[in-house]
Design brief:
By secondary structure, the protein is α/β, with parallel strands linked by helices. It is built from 16 helices and 13 strands. The chain has helices spanning 12-27, 46-52, 71-94, 107-117, 132-137, 165-168, 176-182, 202-217, 249-255, 265-274, 289-293, 295-300, 313-324, 327-337, 345-356, 359-365; strands at 4-7, 36-40, 56-59, 98-101, 121-125, 143-146, 157-158, 190-195, 220-225, 240-243, 258-261, 278-280, 303-305. The protein is globular and about 60 Å long.
Amino acid sequence: MTRVVLAGGGTAGHVNPLLAVAHELVRQGECAPADIFVIGTREGLESRLVPDAGFALGTIARLPFPRRMSAEALLFWPRFISAVGKSIRFIRAHRPDVVAGFGGYASAPVYVAAWLSRVPLVIHEANAVPGFANRWGARLTPHVVTTFSLTKLPGATLLGMPMLRSITHPQTAPTMSSARQHFGLSPRKKTLVVTGGSQGSVSVNSTVQAVVEDILAAGWQVLHIVGHRNPLPTLDTPGYLALNYCDRMDLAFAAATAVISRAGAATVSEIQLLGLPAVFVPYPVGNGEQEKNAWDSLQAGSAVLVMDADFTPEYVRATVLPLLGDDSALARMRTRARGIGRANAAEDFVQVMRDALTPRRRVSSW
């Protein structure tokens, strides 16, 4: 059986594809769960999601790369070297045939550790604008794959976002009406799903709540996932449901006629796969990756994009409400979305891991 180390974490965009690949390795019989070891951080989502999924987790220090000279910047390299050393110890203890990284704070030390340990390395970049860890790691391996067509990394191959099979190949796909009934909504009404990501978005939430009566008056109902860090005043309005957290996003998206959403890599990929008309409101902090993540959908004509500062009640009334009232336009957006999403990205990533093995290891282990 093959033994693997998977590295990454911090946000859902790093953790979700990591777990999708881990489950795919088990599904294909390439690994038992005990043969998969994940290296992450204590602070990231992986600290909860990886053990909950049944995989072992080892942690190293969370090390944001310094962007200006400071006392913290002077301490970065000693801490980085320490994290590399701990990663090498994890690799020696687990003895993997291949290491796969998914970006995030934990990845860069593991990339260096894999290179020093002469273990084949595969890298997946979730966002259209690659992060520091993957820009650096891509210099250490020829096995680099990306999610979006805009991503620029040397020698990278476009592959898509690995997602769980419950999303890409559900045994029983929920119907639109049953998904709506799951949330206590009308099974027949057009449904707008609003999500600002796992943490929520103050700007998206406040704008949507300000115009919710207009949306309801247009004949729609609203499923609003506000995020547990951004609670809203309770609105006791028929046809409007606000949830602090949704652990069944598969059902939320199955219920949707259209979506208003941030443009995180995992969310954009799932919306593309499902062919949902979308209004993307990129998160305004970072290196602009969310705006670029939406580019493939915009080019296909399946989504529109509005910057966070421009997503106001006036914008929704002037632009979004007319779109929601145009069934033909929404149908065209759904048609144009076909073929953007890549349902087999997790399987394809496992194949890249196979290809990364030396002939000797490929014969003996895979």
